[in-house]
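Need tokens for this chain, all 255 residues.
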Amino acid sequence: MIDRRQIISVPRWAKALLVLLLGFVLATSIVVALRFIGQDGKTDLVLISLSLAQSTITIFFVGLIVVFAEMGTDVSQIERKSEDFLTSILPSRLSRIVLDGVRCQARPLSDIDIFGKLFELRFGSETYRVWIGLNVKRLLVIHFIGEDPGNAGFQSYSQRQPSASFSEWLRQDVFSITLQGAEKVGYEVNCQRATVDGEPLVAIWMAIDCGDDFILSPGEKLFWSNDIAMMTESFLRTAVRNGLNLRTSAVPQPL
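Here are the structure tokens for all 255 residues:
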């Protein structure tokens, strides 16, 4: 079986030229064979033409597989497919999120850092932001939550766990089910307290290796985009129920 990740990439003009040449040779061989078949002294020419036609047919179909197959080591193709995932496939799945009965309108905003984008998730008059990045096969999702020690839920938790920090409360109590579910799928999960532009917050980021075939597989891209959408929906619903501040001044991004 041909490994599409190991096939040499061919420019579009070369693909078209190769197909035209193979088609021309095939057509010429068939025409010559039909033109001279049955004529005395032309047996060798007919046999050569038929043999050439048979070989050309084989080369033609093998060539189609080789020439038009995608190549995993072509950087420009990987970049185009990564961009398509972030700007088309992923927003379409994020737009299926429903929060308090309102359907999400998701759109990518600006590029941030080397391989990620800031996404706007709009629910009527409410807007949230999330950073999502794709490094070939590794997906990362980052949420920012404003630190609020006065949150009623945190105050109640602190009475039971006096030494617990705000970030520990988020991970061990508020988002325990969401993050545990992510970890079962294979995500690495981290909660990190930080101060960005003078604003204290907690960055919750999740990362996962989607496998070598991810960028070339429509099924894999659909699976992981659905998974991110479902995880994001759970995250937002949980945050809203617990009165968390997701609209930080700081833009979600790698710290």
